[in-house]
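Following up on my earlier message about protoporphyrin IX containing FE. Here are the inputs again, as you asked, copied directly from the submission form:
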Amino acid sequence: MNWLCEFMTSSIGKKLEVALFGFFLCMFLVVHLGGNLFLWAPAVGGDPGHWFNLYANTLESQFFITFAELGLAAVFLVHIAVTLWVQWENWKARPIGYTTTAWAGGRTISSASTIYTGVILLIFLIVHVRAMRFEERFGGQLYSHVLHELTGTPAAVFYLVCMAALGLHLSHGVQAAARTFGIDHPKFTPIIEKLGLAFAIVMAGSFGAIAVWGGWFAGGKP
Ligand code: HEM
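Thanks, got it. Here's what our run produced:
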């Protein structure tokens, strides 16, 4: 077991953990977006929240949901903790920093800002999960609760800034993870870069569109 511990705490081991757990988080985002799209499902009998509430309540009543949530929390924790660990080691090794711009030498704005967009997303997660998951569930009426949380300019702007951070984070994260997994080839790397960018735009754009809809158009707050 010693070799496993050594590998997991080695520099390449930590990079692999961040990439693998980041990949799991991308899968969560796809599923989460799919669930949120029920917010836009057609009304039934004058109730615009029918399908979304049905989806949320069905999910909530599954026996495995607590395990899934604990697993998800663990995946977030490992991804964040190992990233901070690696970043801390980098800063310790190079405390003065470069004198050139952060994105000089082949670095892009998104790669130079990944740690900062990550911190914004961490703040977002704390606010978001507290509001959506740990507040009163309104007797299974999650739809009206979500609209209540999203409605208004402050909430919409907060969500939009965070979704822009999500887009930047993903656009670098996907290609960095692919490189960590060893996919570095003149033919495939440009394709992966484009796919990573497309994924980032679709995720940030779709969650952002829900924020705009909830913030200014759905009429959630009285
Ligand atoms: C407009 C955008 C978003 C909306 C409307 C939204 C809505 C929701 C709702 C309604 C829940 C509670 C689900 C339930 O308990 O049944 C939830 C939970 C959660 N959301 Fe979001 N979400 C959005 C974006 C995001 C993003 C971008 C992330 C990640 C970066 C995220 C991460 C989470 C997490 C981790 C949970 C807790 C999952 C659980 O424990 O069940 N959300 N969200």
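One observation from looking it over: DSSP finds nine helices and no strands in the chain. Hope that helps, and feel free to reply on this thread.
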